[in-house]
Design brief:
The complex is a heterodimer. Chain A has no helices and 11 strands. Chain A is mostly beta strands. Chain B is built from no helices and 11 strands. In chain B, the strands form 2 sheets. In chain B, strands 2, 4, 5, 6, 9, 10 and 11 form a 7-stranded mixed β-sheet that branches. In chain B, strands 1-3-8-7 form a 4-stranded antiparallel β-sheet, with no helix packed on it. Classes of the chains: A mainly beta, B mainly beta. Chains A and B meet through strand 5 and strand 10 of A and strand 5 and strand 9 of B.
Chain lengths: ~110, ~120
């Protein structure tokens, strides 16, 4: 089955700096890669996603890049703000549905 | 985005009893629903996938007789934790996706505590 590795497990940045979280996946059939933000005790919220026919996608301060050859994808958050502090999960899945295989998560702390 | 409602949000039960968790898609037909479990400070682990009208597919290591999943309609799936034990205490989250390749939307989760 799919195995998703995520790094780093914790990340602390100063407000205004950029944050980068990286994930790798093992199943070459995976073609959908969402990123979720989860605050303590709440449901994961989709923040951005990318499909395998695209190499990069951007939405305001958030961007995701995908390298299919190397089987890795990354989340980039620019101009970080304290409210960006949360746990971020990457995930991967194939066309068989949206049964997501999650990475272990990155706890991001943005300090003022 | 679409709305998925999960109930209850919190439940405390005694060891040995059963607990039922409901997951409803409020504004779309969910052809597939997924159940995840999340232990404190850990990631979400897929437990099972259910398609409306058919038996659920369980991930390796998940006991199907302990975690009963029913997906009898296009808007409702239930997870019943049978003979619950303290080690079953966890955050259970469902997600639902519709036909045509839509993304999966998460319910708000259920915090289960078995005492």
């Amino acid at each position: 089955g799919e195995n998703v590795e995520q790094h780093p497990s914790t990340l602390s940045v100063q407000e205004g700096d950029s944050a980068v979280i990286k994930c790798t996946y093992s199943d070459s059939a995976s073609n959908y890669f969402p990123w979720y933000k989860q605050e303590l005790g709440k449901r994961p919220q989709l923040i951005i996603d990318i499909r395998s026919n695209v190499g990069e996608k951007k939405d305001q301060r958030i961007a995701v890049t995908l390298n299919k050859t190397a089987k890795h994808f990354s989340l980039h958050i620019t101009e970080t703000q304290p409210e960006d502090s949360a746990v971020y999960f990457c995930a991967a899945t194939s066309n068989s549905g949206y049964a997501l295989n999650f990475g272990k998560g990155t706890s991001l702390l943005v300090t003022p | 985005g679409a709305v998925v409602s999960q109930h209850p949000s919190r439940v405390i039960c005694k060891s040995g009893t059963s607990v039922k968790i409901e997951c409803r898609s409020l504004d779309f037909q969910a052809t597939t629903m997924f159940w995840y479990r999340q232990f404190p400070k850990q990631s979400l682990m897929l437990m099972a996938t259910s398609n409306e009208g058919s038996k659920a597919t369980y991930e390796q290591g998940v006991e199907k007789d302990k975690f009963l999943i029913n997906h009898a309609s296009l808007t409702l799936s239930t997870l019943t934790v049978t003979s619950a034990h303290p080690e079953d205490s966890s955050f259970y989250i469902c997600s639902a996706s519709g036909s045509g390749g839509t993304e999966a939307f998460f319910g708000q989760g259920t915090r289960l505590t078995v005492v």
